[in-house]
Amino acid sequence: MRPNAAETVIQSLIVALLSLMCLSVLYPFLYMLAISLNEGADAAKGGVYLLPRAFTLLNYEIVLGNEVIRHAYLITIARTAAGTVSGLFVTLLVAFGLSYRGLPLRGVILSYILITMLFNGGLVPYYIQLNNLGLLNTFWVYILPGMFSVWNMFVMLKFIQGIPEALIESAEMDGAGPVRVLLQIIIPLSKPMLAALGLFTAVGHWNDWFTGAFFVTDQSLIPVQTFLQQLLAASDISAVLGSNTNQEALARSSQMQNITLMSIKMAVVMVSALPILCVYPFLQKYFVKGVLVGSVKG
């Protein structure tokens, strides 16, 4: 059935509106990419919007050659990997345990967990608690506080409850215990949901600058996003160059006359954003299949 004239007009308007929305999201990214690939002194004159006018890779050479940034990347990668795996593991164990309707005090436990989702003690008590636990200025401050997510737990719980009970009952009749049920039934059937929530968790760890800014003072432990936050507030390019020997050699060269703090900032933004943007499209298909199904079933 062919659409009539009114439907064609409406569809055209929807496509145009969505295209404008996509451009509004894509343009800032393209602008930062153009500035990062352009000589800083030339970009400072203005007029660089979509494509670099004086192409150079020197901004990325400086950023990728900086020892502080490379170490911050390692911290970010380590916390993202460890935080995602541990977070999914702990949250899945809680959701699996609470999925048993015969669990004693199950309703009380769920109500208590829900209260922690709605209310919190605030930043100062949270800081004092981290200090009492000895987590300040340690790598574990990025991992342990985020190992359990209430929202993720409820999504997992609803998904697990949507799995036919006959599968679990037949496995238990064959002598399977809770661990075997979890490993051979729950996890294989929950892969789409785990992939979606895993991506959410990984993005949260990758983009988190707050923890490194407020709970870590050791510069060797800050993640790349915290370094980026410090860089965006900097007013001197020496905050980027530091004392790296190669960068000092660059500073003595005539090329450094074309480098500005803004061009370095844009290069750091691109370097910190590209990895997670490259991973995102490959797991996008799991969102509807995993999170939506897990949220609706019950």
UniProtKB/TrEMBL annotation:
ABC transmembrane type-1 domain location: 73-277
UniProt name for this protein: Binding-protein-dependent transport systems inner membrane component
Membrane topology: Multi-pass membrane protein
Transmembrane helix listed as a keyword: yes
Primary location: membrane
InterPro entries reported in the protein's UniProt record: MetI-like, MetI-like_sf
Record's keyword annotation contains Transport: yes
Gene3D superfamilies: MetI-like (1.10.3720.10)
Annotated coiled-coil segments of the chain: none
GO cellular component: plasma membrane
Alphabetic keyword roster: Cell membrane, Membrane, Transmembrane, Transmembrane helix, Transport
Residues passing through the membrane, by range: 12-34, 72-96, 108-128, 140-160, 262-283
Family of this protein: Belongs to the binding-protein-dependent transport system permease family.
GO biological process, one term: transmembrane transport
Pfam families associated with the record: BPD_transp_1 (PF00528)
Subcellular location: Cell membrane
